[in-house]
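User: What would this chain look like folded?
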Amino acid sequence: MVECALAAIDNGADLLAVHARTGETKAGMEPDLSGIRAVKDVAGAVPVLANGRMDTPERIGRAKDEGGADGYQSGRSAC
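Assistant: Here's the prediction, encoded as structure tokens.
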């Protein structure tokens, strides 16, 4: 994940969105914020958005506090 983020930044990305679940973690499971944190740690000034079950104020807060996310994307679970 970090390698992909760095490649995106090297090729001009102005913003990164990181999904908090992998193929092994299905919908309904709690988001794993470690990948968001890992990308945020190398992203420098490029903002990082959290995605993946950002459907409650508590999860959004955790994404910002624990994952270091600059913002979030909501999807189907928030509707």
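Strands lie at 16-19, 48-51, 71-72. If you want, I can go into more detail on any region.
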